[in-house]
Amino acid sequence: MQMLNIALPKGRLGEKVLAMFENAGRSCPAIHEGGRKLIFENEATGVRYFWVKPSDVAIYVERGAADIGVAGKDILEEYSPDIYELLDLGLGKCRMCVAGKKDFTDDREKTLRVATKFPHIARAHYARQSRQIDIIKLNGSIEIAPILSLSDVIVDIVETGTTLLENDLTVLETILPISARLIANKVSYLFKNKEITDLTKQMEALCENRSDAK
After folding, report:
1. What is the pLDDT of residue 38?
2. Prediction pTM value
């Protein structure tokens, strides 16, 4: 059995993803022992897990340090890594949206100022509308940008909409749905095809069972 190197996103999503892998028969008792270790393996089930920052998972997979991993659709759309997207796991569901003040009206005679952590997604969205924009790249909480008139609108991930509501903002457009995706390195997919394909099928069955239970 060839070992599969699997990049897990740190945080709540990663815990859910790990549970799915384990339910698919890829358990690794060492990962539950705590401590500061970052890499855990179980030869019996053929897996080597390691925790990384969610936004870095696609880099590890693209560069071949990981055979497979789980990354949000937002990361895949923003950075367009050269990987295979195998399966929508249906976890971490949210959406990428345009939001702004409740009384906002778009004056198309003016350049639209867009504050965002996702400049590529924002540019692509407005390019489809032939809309001239000025991207303001921010890294922290961006809801404050339209409140202080730094921007006209924001492009960001919306889960519940509570933060927007509390800041008197509202969703103006939905750009795309976001969820966690199982991804694979292209070379690994060729040389470890059976292991990756078998695991993908098992994960897909878990997703279907979850849907049937609802």
Report:
1. 87
2. 0.92
